[in-house]
Design goal:
The complex is a heterotrimer of chains A (94), B (468) and C (474).
Chain A lengths: L3 H10 L6 H18 L34 H5 L10 E4 L4
Helix pairs in contact in A: 1-2
Chain B lengths: L5 H10 L4 H13 L6 E4 L16 E4 L26 H8 L4 E5 L33 H9 L4 E6 L5 H7 L2 E4 L19 E6 L2 H9 L30 E5 H4 L6 H16 L3 E5 L7 H16 L18 H12 L2 H14 L5 H24 L2 E5 L15 H5 L6 H6 L3 E9 L2 E8 L5 H15 L9
Parallel strand pairs in B: 2-3, 2-4, 7-8, 7-9
Antiparallel strand pairs in B: 1-3, 4-6, 5-6, 5-10, 9-11, 10-11
Helix pairs in contact in B: 4-5, 6-15, 9-11, 9-12
Chain C lengths: L4 E12 L38 H13 L3 E2 L2 E2 L1 E5 L9 E5 L5 E2 L2 E2 L2 E10 L3 E11 L2 E7 L6 E7 L6 H18 L11 E11 L9 E6 L2 H20 L8 E5 L4 E4 L12 E2 L6 E2 L2 H9 L5 H10 L5 H9 L1 H13 L4 H14 L12 H12 L5 H14 L3 H8 L8 H13 L1 H8 L7 H11 L5 H11 L3
Helix pairs in contact in C: 1-4, 2-3, 5-6, 6-7, 6-8, 7-8, 7-9, 9-10, 12-14, 12-15, 14-15
Chain lengths: 94, 468, 474
């Protein structure tokens, strides 16, 4: 079960605004999904190693050699707002 | 020309029966006239392609592959009109091998979905029955290939997103071993599961396209060299092959009788071809869906954090301050299914819940991989229906996310274990195609393609009429 | 009677590594270039881009671990640290969490908790009113710095004063500079330091509530900031008020400490293993390569100077902490190896005349300094004369012996000449002579001064004193 407050808390962490209706709906839907998902709690997994990579590869290091960077106008081309040199954002301090 | 498979078309171009330019124009016209909403963008003219062995056979590419200067939106309004400054490794490789970009295909938003109804740009229709879904998330690619508006297409599979739409559209879809195809330039859904693969009219085409996709990419640390060269299949027998069937898993109430009947008939054909069908157990398969719906949303919640309105894509309400910009941009840019998964994933990773959700799910993943290792001591390949149902009606499951998720029941275990699996059409149920899934150990694509080819010849499935 | 408090301090240091390219992409590192000219799909966090670990960053990380005596993890893993900020393009920082590259270790008298690798954030420049977005203050993001490799070094809470924190950080800086893994420049931000500070009643074993003092960008500010925070916490406790766990900022202009606590709820970074990267398994080859590049470090050198060369603690530390002095010292010793302490003293004298300069780049050849020490130990010149010679060497270079001869700086021995000069001096300072006879040896100053003036400092002070006593019949 996940209640309204938890939905709001998680939405804040995820920087996701939700309307009141959405909060209500999500609380119901997420609870149903979590109820299903929580069935993994039934398993005895004592001492089982977690798998984060299915294929055994390690290191895969890259040599410290420069590669061309993007021209600035290309880097900025998709930006919603720029001053021609950088990405313009609302100040975090404001 | 349209009725030719990609391999046949490549041969025809090679012989000079038809030019690459003619082939491109013919498909360009069909793609531009597409009325299934399978395409989000179609090339205006033929792009330059390498003089490789694919001879200029055009390729439809799922929207989430980045293509330089061409819209790459991953089916999301938050990336509407986004044109990346670079091209995904696999798309570049295929272009160099002679497969020019024909168009970008519709998909569920950020590859989250099994019906293509979650696209920010409208649902795709199934060419077999326009009132039904084509499956997802690579629904546009599957529909385009089935309807003959593309000779072949690229898709991606996270929990079944190539195999399930291939099944629902009556075509072939291969999800390769995790790591054999570079993910660089694929807009990520769940990094540890995402894998690119071919959607094609037949098994030979799948082998041909996949053969030019594989290879380690220094830009993708999780990629690796395939230990075998991918060969075009030719064997028409299955002598000595042991096909394992997880009977317990098949007993799920949601499996349609028509699907089960087509599946059993295909097993019988396999035996006629010399295969032995054996019972195997995948004791944790029952929990795969649960583990998947923790792991995939968790990774997605992090992968989608970059859509913040700062560097690209949608931006809302910057004049109301940083927090408003973040939260409103993401509210307006993401659809409901994406929001659901971001919330589930954020919850599963958050303080106090990690061990119970993400940690446990990763342990279940270990168990599932062990199940398969044990199974592959008893058999060479594992077979299941690809999807428990045939294509369902548009709108039928949109209000029940869990019912939608259950459609991935048979595809997810292979995804969690990183194993290759193919879906081939094996017959019809209620006039709609049924998919037969065949999976194997890591790097066993040649074995899978060989077996799938032999079955394909024996089944003689009649595809949708696409000529004319 | 008021309680005495003991500060407990641990440091978290971020060091920008001096690789050619960024941590996870091939963009070149840059300082002072125009904004956003060193970016690519990876360090801009474009959709679909994937990180790839810079081998040299791992190499440098291992060198740091070896230099600090850390345990190097056979397998380490990158994690994602999730939070939103405009300088963090992916919405997460790739860092290390429970499996860092190095654990444990020690530098000087402070234990190391861990060393891990991560990527730097971009630069956020507040442009305020001039860049307003429809009435809101704006900032500009420059991604040139974003993705620069960082080593984060975390100490155990072993530091007990602001001065010790400053001194230890200086030792760390010298060590890292000698390793050649970083520019370690605080002003330019290649060395950044946060301090975790708590206080407790002296003698107590329990830890008090700690605060985190952020980003102090000079050694002086670190000392001042920590001092100010210790005082602030003491004042709170004495007033019976609790210390609140929070993040603080020290303003060096006002000396004031302010809270950085945001209105937001506490962070929840949702760490999980970075699925886009594979584990780092340290191979024997990687270890050997790192070992081969770790030179003798200040702590080891100091120990060797004390035990093998017999230097006193101050000299050993001074030389070991400044690599260029140590190297010069050793090249002088190669010429004159018999008197390490005397050589050390004269290298120190030389260093004082060169301000912060490298003696190897001065006009004083190591052979000349060795010769100077030789003249002194042969009593051919006095200490005062030696200082004059050194001044000349610094200004013009040359051979000490030639300078001594040309300037007539040779010591005046115990012969008739000196006895005569002492007699003259006694005669000229009759008052002082009387006082000495009355038992006040301190009055000898004017007499010695007279002799030194007459000999231009070439007389040996001890010999002059002996002659004064002799001639006064003491």
């Amino acid at each position: 079960m996940i209640d309204r407050e938890q939905v709001l808390h998680v939405a804040r962490l995820a920087r996701l605004q939700l309307t009141d209706d959405e909060v209500e709906r999500m609380a119901g839907e997420l609870s149903a999904i979590l109820a299903h998902v929580e069935r993994i709690g039934e398993l005895d997994l004592e001492g089982v190693e977690p798998t984060s990579h299915v294929v055994e590869v390690s290191n895969a290091l890259r040599p410290d050699e420069p590669r061309p960077s993007l021209p600035r106008e290309v880097a900025l081309a998709n930006a919603p707002d720029t001053d021609g040199e950088g990405f313009l954002v609302p100040s975090p301090q404001a | 020309m349209i009725e030719l498979t990609a391999k046949q078309l490549a041969d025809a171009i090679g012989r000079g029966d038809v030019s690459a330019a003619e082939a491109f124009d013919a498909y360009r016209e069909r793609a531009a006239a597409d009325d299934l909403n399978a395409y989000l963008w179609v090339a205006e003219e033929r792009p330059e392609a390498g003089a490789g062995p694919l001879n200029g056979v055009p390729l439809a590419v799922k929207d989430l592959f980045c293509t330089e200067g061409v819209p790459s939106q991953s089916g999301s309004r938050i990336l509407e009109g986004y044109r990346p400054p670079y091209t995904a490794t696999v798309v570049r490789r295929l272009a160099e091998a002679g497969a020019p970009l024909l168009g970008k295909t519709n998909q569920d938003e950020f590859a989250m979905g099994s019906s293509n109804e979650n696209s920010g740009f409208g649902p795709v229709r199934n060419p077999w029955d326009r009132e039904r879904v084509p499956g997802g998330s690579s629904g546009g690619s599957a529909a385009a290939v089935a309807a003959g508006s593309a000779p072949w297409a690229l898709g991606t599979d996270t929990g079944g997103s190539i195999r399930q739409p291939a099944a629902l559209c009556g075509i072939v879809g291969l999800k390769p071993t995790y790591g054999t195809v570079s993910r660089y330039g694929m807009i990520a859904f769940a990094s540890s599961l995402d894998q690119a693969g071919p959607l094609t009219r037949d098994v030979t085409d799948a082998a041909l396209l996949y053969a030019h996709m594989v290879g380690r990419d220094p830009c993708d640390s999780t990629s690796l060299e395939h230990p075998e060269a991918i060969a075009l299949p030719s064997s028409e027998r299955l002598d000595g092959l042991r096909i394992g069937v997880p009977r317990d898993a098949l007993a799920h109430e949601g499996v349609e009788p028509g699907v089960l009947a087509a599946f059993e008939a295909t097993l019988a054909r396999a035996e006629e071809l010399g295969a032995a069908v054996v019972d195997i157990a995948l004791p944790h398969a029952d929990h795969a869906l649960s583990a998947y719906y923790v792991i995939a949303p968790a990774e997605a919640s992090s992968n989608l954090a970059r859509f913040d309105g700062v560097r690209y894509g949608l931006r809302r309400d910057a004049d109301e301050g940083l927090l408003a910009m973040y939260t409103h941009t993401r509210h307006d840019g993401f659809g409901p299914e994406v929001k659901r998964r971001i919330l589930i994933g954020t919850y599963a990773l958050s303080s106090g819940y990690y061990d119970a959700y993400y940690g446990r799910a990763q342990q279940v993943r270990t168990r599932i991989a062990e199940d398969f290792r044990a199974a592959f001591r008893e058999c060479d390949l594992v077979a299941t229906p690809t999807s428990p149902t045939v294509a369902f009606k548009l709108g039928e499951r949109v209000d029940d996310p869990l019912a939608m998720y259950l459609g991935d029941l048979f595809t997810i275990p292979f995804s969690l274990a990183g194993l290759p699996a193919i879906s081939i059409p094996c017959g019809l149920s209620e006039g709609l195609p049924v998919g037969f899934q065949l999976g194997g150990p890591a790097f066993s694509e040649n074995r899978i393609l060989d077996a799938a080819y032999a079955l394909e010849q024996a089944i003689g499935f009649t595809p949708l009429e696409v000529g004319g | 009677m008021s309680t005495a408090y003991e500060p407990v301090i641990g440091l978290e240091i971020h060091v920008q590594l001096k690789t050619r390219t960024k941590m996870f992409c091939g963009c070149e590192l840059s300082f002072g270039d125009p904004p956003n000219v060193h970016t690519c799909p990876v360090c801009l966090g474009l959709p679909g881009a994937l990180p790839a670990v810079n081998a040299r960053a791992i190499h440098y990380g291992l060198m740091i671990g070896l230099a600090l005596g850390s345990e190097l993890a056979p397998r380490s893993v990158f994690h994602r640290k999730n939070y939103f900020y405009p300088d963090l393009p992916k919405g997460y920082q790739i860092s290390q969490y429970d499996l860092p590259l190095c654990r444990g270790g020690r530098l000087g008298d402070v234990r190391i908790h861990r060393v891990h690798l991560e990527e730097d954030a971009a630069k956020l420049v507040h442009v305020g009113e001039s860049g307003r977005i429809h009435g809101s203050d704006a900032s500009i993001v420059d991604f040139n710095r974003g993705g620069t490799p960082l080593a984060e070094i975390v100490t155990e809470p072993d530091i007990r004063s602001a001065e010790q924190a400053r001194d230890w950080l200086q030792l760390l800086r010298v060590t890292l500079r000698q390793l050649g893994v970083s520019d370690v420049n605080m002003e330019e931000g290649s060395l950044r330091c946060d301090a975790n500070i708590s206080i407790r009643p002296a003698g107590s074993d329990e830890l008090g509530t700690k605060t985190e003092l952020k980003n102090m960008n000079s050694f002086r500010f670190i000392e001042q900031g920590i001092k100010a925070e210790i005082e602030r916490q003491e004042a709170l406790l004495r007033a019976g008020e609790p210390v609140v766990q929070e993040t603080l900022h020290f303003d060096p202009r006002t000396g004031r400490i302010t809270s950085l606590r945001s209105k937001e709820e506490a962070h929840d970074y949702r760490y999980f293993p970075e699925p886009d990267l594979v584990p780092i398994d340290i191979t024997d080859e990687m270890l050997e390569a790192a070992r081969a590049e770790v030179p003798e470090l200040p702590a080891e050198r100091q120990e060797r100077y004390r035990t093998q060369l017999g230097l006193n603690e101050d000299s050993a530390k001074l030389l070991a902490d400044r690599v260029e002095l140590a190297e010069y010292f050793e090249s002088v010793l190669a010429v004159n190896g018999s008197e390490p302490q005397a050589v050390a003293n004269w290298v120190t004298e030389l260093a004082a005349r060169l301000d912060e300069g490298d003696p190897a780049a001065s006009k004083v050849e190591p052979g000349a300094l060795a010769a100077l020490v030789g003249l002194l130990s042969d009593k051919a010149i006095t200490v005062g004369a030696a200082r004059q010679v050194l001044d000349r060497l610094v200004a013009e270079g040359g051979d000490p012996k030639a300078i001594v001869e040309a300037e007539g700086l040779g010591a005046i021995g115990g012969g008739e000449e000196l006895a005569g000069l002492v007699a003259e001096a006694i005669a000229a300072n009759a008052d002082a002579a009387e006082k000495i006879k009355a038992g006040n040896m301190k009055a000898i100053g004017p007499i010695i001064g007279h002799v030194m003036k007459a000999t231009k400092g070439r007389a040996d002070g001890g010999e002059v004193t002996r002659l004064v006593r002799e001639q006064l019949g003491l």
